[in-house]
Amino acid sequence: MSVRRAALGFVFVTVLLDMLALGLVVPVLPSLVTTFTGGDTARAAEAIGLYATVWALMQLVFSPVLGLLSDRFGRRPVILLSNFGLALDYLVMALAPGLGWLFVGRVLSGVTSASVPTAIAYMSDVTDPKDRARSFGFIGAAFGVGFVVGPALGGWLGVSNPRLPFWVAGAMSLANALWGIFVLPESLAKEKRRARLDLATANPLGALALLRRHRELFGLAAVNFIGWVAHEVYPVIFVLYAEYRYGWNERAVGSVLAGVGVVGIVVSAGLVGPAVKALGERKTLLLGTLLGAAGFAMYGWAPTGALFLLGLPVGGLWGLAGPASQALMSRRVSASEQGELQGALGSVRSLAMLVAPSIFSLTFARAIARERVPKIPGAPWFVAAVLLAAAAALAAAVTARDGEPRPL
User: Fold this and answer.
1) Is 217 in contact with 405 (CB distance < 8 Å)?
2) Is 406 part of any domain?
3) Which of 106, 173, 217, 258 has the fewest CB atoms within 10 Å, counting from its CB?
4) Band of the pLDDT at 408, cuts 50, 70, 90?
5) Structurally, how many domains does the chain consist of?
6) Is the CB of residue 90 less than 8 Å from the CB of residue 96?
7) Using CA atoms, how far apart are residues 15 and 323, in angstroms rounded to an integer?
8) Domain contains 193
9) In a domain? residue 270
10) Residue 155 has pLDDT above 80, yes or no
11) d(Cα 406, Cα 400) in Å, to the nearest integer?
12) Does residue 381 surpass a pLDDT of 80?
């Protein structure tokens, strides 16, 4: 039991560090890029946009690769190699002499951050099906901690030197990898592994074939895709929206985002288990998704910042949906397919990250355009609310009353 607890703790920290990889760069990467462009803000913006796209593309490509590798060779080597790779990425970013090396760093970050699906597959291996939603809730809590701590830590460390956050993160990632060598046992028994590595499925299109092959998973994967698209309204539009509608400064924006993360931690770590125990996975999924839609609608409607804040606990309960959905899907595949499933879902999420920015940025731009009367600044949030309502309807259609997925 003590070994199992240490292993689960390691997996939690691994996911946390992967989220820090995303959050740490938010406050310091723009200033670092600007120094390499000679203060040319327009060129810096182009570079940052390219880095974000490449990061998502690397996840799209490598999530299924790492998932399949973990099904064939075990979870442990994939997770540990990804941790060492993340430490190398931070070292490259810390030493980067120009934009080209920063680009290399973002490529490495996208590849190594794709270890999250393998970590989720590890959790599936070591927990009973009835307890998986609760375990996945702790993974969600790790996401929330990274969402809160990453930007704050990056901003605090980057005050004196924009490269310092990368040095600190690299040291933490290296220490975590070394720790894992001693505390992380293999979770996938040899007799449950794939007999061979099918290279035809080691790509986004091939990985998605699993969802087509197990047709009962396809609807729930679509539910997740819609939800992930809706979630991107936060990083794409929140800062601009808060400044435009409420006049919030950087400190206020950061505090509210931290509040979003704290609510997510409480829901994921404290409420998922009791909710699934009381309602079952299906009802928890539907309830969480509908509450998320209600929260987004409140954000879009709120004429004042105070009313916007009232929506945080409502929207935060959307965190109930993800672990319940993951639990439903993980029970529909064998032990040797858990990595492939999570890799496919990683590709689906990366695809959502590529699609969503244009949806919400264009919606916001047109909703507040100079010639538009009346202006509707909350339009992106309303779009996200409609998406989640559609996801809830789809989830209801593809799940049976007993919580089992039903073929489309």
Assistant:
1) yes
2) yes
3) 258
4) very low
5) 2
6) no
7) 15
8) no
9) yes
10) no
11) 6
12) yes
CA distances to 81, 115, 123, 149, 186 from 180, in Å:
10, 14, 15, 22, 11
Q: What is the pLDDT of residue 407?
A: 47
Name the one residue in this structure whose structure tokens are 């799940």.
Answer: 399
Encoded tokens for 334? 């064998």
Burial of 390 (0-12, 13-18, 19+ CB in 10 A): middle
Other CB atoms within 10 Å distance of the CB of residue 196 = 7
Using a 10 angstrom Cβ sphere, with 0-12 exposed, 13-18 middle and 19 or more buried, the burial of residue 284 is: buried
For residue 226, give the amino acid letter: I
Residue 109, domain extent:
1-186
Amino acid identity, position 395: A
Quote the CA–CA distance of 179 and 283 in Å, as a whole number.
39
Checking phi first, is residue 74 left (phi over 0); if not, alpha (psi -120 to 50) or beta? left
- The gap from C-alpha 144 to its chain's centroid, in whole angstroms, comes to 9
Residues paired with 399 in a beta bridge: 405
**Do 328 and 390 have their domain in common?**
yes
Angle between helices 321-330 and 272-301 (to 10 degrees): 130
3-state secondary structure of 405: strand
What pLDDT, in 10s, does the model give residues 203-217? Answer: 667 667 777 777 678
Q: Which two tokens stand for residue 25?
A: 């760069």
Q: Is residue 259 located within the same domain as residue 285?
A: yes
- Helix, strand, or coil (residue 399): strand
Contact 238/361 with Cβ under 8 angstroms?
A: no
Q: Cβ–Cβ contacts within 10 Å for residue 377, how many? A: 17
Helix or strand or coil: residue 184? coil
Give burial (CB, 10 Å; 0-12/13-18/19+) of 305. middle
Residue 222: CATH number of its domain:
1.20.1250.20
Q: Write down the pTM of the prediction.
A: 0.75
Domain boundary among 133, 159, 186: 186
Secondary structure class of 43 (helix, strand, coil)? helix
